[in-house]
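lol so apparently i was supposed to do this last week
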Amino acid sequence: MSFKPLRKAVLPVAGLGTRFLPATKSMPKEMLTVVDRPLIQYAVDEARAAGIEQFCMVTGRGKTALIDHFDVSYELEATLKARSKLEALEALEALRLQPGAITTVRQQEPLGLGHAIWCARTFIGDDPFAILLPDDLVLSKTPCMQQLADAYKETEGSVVAVVEVPPDQTNKYGILKTGSDDGRLVEVTGLVEKPKPADAPSNLSIIGRYVLLPEVLGYLTKMERGAGNEVQLTDAMAKMIGHSPFHGLRFEGERFDCGDKIGFLEAQIAFSLERPDLADDVRAFLKKYISEIA
Ligand code: UTP
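anyway here it is w/ uridine 5'-triphosphate bound
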């Protein structure tokens, strides 16, 4: 296959978000806010910074707030203008995508991440594509997706962002079997979804950032069920190995699992400490709480 630039991203947002009930009873998990931006916006901004121009959200029932978030809100904008609330207006304008740049498809039943990606097959077509799971946030100097896009250019194959996890927790993650390793890029020779620690081929885990070649769709079409009786993306990716280059990227930055309460709380603190308008106040209240605990 000749090299094609990365221009498309799929954002799977059809999960039920059960770990955040009751917050997610009538609001999508991806609208949970870290500091003052919903998770979905961090994902879209990160992808745009990597040159991605076309987006497909794979949604489910009760997810319309996510679509509205990227829509123009004429009434609100007119009111802000009339009241000269220019900073607030700018925050809304920064959100705006090119007309037609975002599309949605429905995953009628949450049958797994692999199934969600397959639902976006018409959007993907024959192009390489990024996947960003909005509940994974990465704090880094260079946006994580930019780092992956660079690695894609370098290897001309699929690349997934990876982190080391505690060896006794491999049963929570998609885990790599590794070949050659230069400390940054690691060749993937196998992939296993949620292996027991005793069966895990390494402790390198995939996080919610991927660049995949479109060939993965051919394997997803078979709809084979894996761990948890779901159609696992990891299983379809495993079948690509040996047919095209496949690497893990130890990215620069820190990942926060915002689908989990502790990860979400940590992200609030870490991201607010990065904000010049908030950092001093946050530091002051953290000191207060720490002195009370000590
Ligand atoms: P999670 O494993 O975090 O599941 O999905 P979840 O349903 O969102 O949350 P919990 O575990 O019930 O709290 C990882 C990503 O895959 C998407 C989710 O929206 C999330 O971005 N996903 C998962 C789908 O789009 N469809 C699915 O069938 C499963």
